[in-house]
Amino acid sequence: MSSAASPRPARPPRPARAKRGAGAIRRIAAIDVGSNSVRQIVADVTPEGGITVVDEMKAAPRLGADLEHTGVLGTQAMERAAAAIGRMATLARQLGAHRIDAVATSAVRDAGNAAEFVARVRQEAGLQIRIIDGADEARLSYLSALAHFDLGAGRTVVMDIGGGSLELAMAADGVPDNLVSLPFGALRLTERFLSGGATRKSLARLRKEVRDGLRDVLPRRDWRGAQLIGSGGTFTNLASIHLARRGMLTARNVHATTVPRVDVEHILGMLAVASADERRGIVGLNPERADIIVAGLAVSAEVMARLEAREVQVSRYGIREGLLLEAARVVPTVADPGAARERSVREFAERCHFEVPHAEHVQRLALRLFDALGPRLGCEPAEREALADAALLHDVGYHISYDRHHKHAYHLIVHAELLGITPAEQVVIANVARYHRGSPPRKKQGNFGVLDAPLRKQINRLAALLRVADGFDRGHVGAVRDVKVRWMQRAIRITPVATKGANVLRLELWGAHRKSQLLAKLAGVPVEIVGPGGEVYSSEDAGADEAE
């Protein structure tokens, strides 16, 4: 039974810049016809490779069901798939797509009656489906990863597990070196090995088949330790389960989730011993994938073992996005590490009309405090980037209203499309921004209490630093140029350095003093804010936190 998202009537029928030619934004639809599912994305694509999703549609006709045994596509499966593609084409045309690209992958290219299916789609949807080979699949998956991850340095392996095949794209310093396709799709392997259930013996046979197949195409000595990126439904479901197990149900999407190899094996083991009905009740797992998820995870586990990879990064983007970029004739730029993240955060802040001088000033002060106090508070070096992003975005809630703007900031950030940031980091950034004012984090609060202990501790540490930094620019005039910090045995002393011409720091001293209690609690000693005349404001004398 196929399912599809309904059109979003609020969307404009045409892109904002509908003119053709150089520099134009193009609205393009891409349809990926796979062995398990058919997916469409309609998006506006910029000449620089920016993708703004207009609408998406999905159906699960299981086009490749029984193909392994019969060698042909089933009549009913073809009918379901053709009908779904017809709906998708109608939606794309109604939304004003300049172009609709549809490609078929493993199931159709392996079927003896592929021509019959292509003719059905032409009649139903008015589209000429292009059947692509495995190497082309791998290339499109890599093209998509290149647009959404920093792949400019080192070795990378992108693996895409579909219903019928596994595609591997191996690249060095942003240049593809080898493209491989193997018949190790989740649906195909389930039918071959697990049709009677995922017993220990059947799963071992499946894994050995994959292990032997990888040996000749994935040289361990060349690709050991390469950055590993996984795309396809197997990985998005893996990420959802992994995040749910960490209490990360607030994460908007799973893109860039990092799943350690040990967790892949644990989740695989948990799902393998569960029945299909039990799997459908597992939080984070799409019930429609419950019967084939074990095979998909087994393939991913074997690729990780072959590469001796410690973790896999999950991409929610795949062939469709590669098609969009190809249709728009865009070649993604190989970015320096962190460039995509920085650009994405800045563009989001600009869309929220953030106050640039204040945000950048608070960011500088927060990072100054991090460098001085972070290590002794237990901060990891990687947390510095999360604090920088939270500081830049802490007031984006003004985009909605001043009242409760810290809570508005949380909701805006947690739902933003931010590249180069894992869901865990995004939830941390959103919570740190949420707690830059008002009450400190409390476990009874739903956005905070559901998270696991390490994330809660990280949010507390970073929020404590951001609160004081924001307090030092209470008037939004940049009166405090820098801060001098001393962590003594009996107290932390923070002395603001005034900007030239700013002789009075009364408001800034009051703001930092008022927000110093959380930092003092975490440090275990009072925080003393020292004024230009030597006056001392201790956290022990601070009043209640600013009102919600």
Describe how the helices and strands are arranged.
Blueprint: E1 26-33, E2 38-45, E3 51-59, H1 67-70, H2 75-94, E4 99-104, H3 106-110, H4 114-125, E5 130-131, H5 134-148, E6 155-161, E7 166-172, E8 175-182, H6 186-193, H7 200-215, H8 220-223, E9 227-231, H9 233-245, E10 258-260, H10 261-273, H11 276-280, H12 293-307, E11 311-315, H13 319-327, H14 339-351, H15 356-377, H16 383-393, H17 405-414, H18 423-434, H19 446-449, H20 453-471, E12 480-487, E13 492-498, H21 506-514, H22 517-523, E14 527-530, E15 536-538
Write up this protein.
The chain has helices at 67-70, 75-94, 106-110, 114-125, 134-148, 186-193, 200-215, 220-223, 233-245, 261-273, 276-280, 293-307, 319-327, 339-351, 356-377, 383-393, 405-414, 423-434, 446-449, 453-471, 506-514, 517-523; strands at 26-33, 38-45, 51-59, 99-104, 130-131, 155-161, 166-172, 175-182, 227-231, 258-260, 311-315, 480-487, 492-498, 527-530, 536-538. It has 548 residues and is α/β, with parallel strands linked by helices. Strand 12 and strand 13 form a beta hairpin. 45% of the residues lie in helices and 16% in strands. It is built from 22 helices and 15 strands.
List keywords for this structure.
disordered N terminus, 548 residues, 16% strand, Nucleotidyltransferase, domain 5, single chain, alpha/beta, Hypothetical protein af1432, 3 domains, elongated, six-stranded mixed sheet, 15 strands, five-stranded mixed sheet
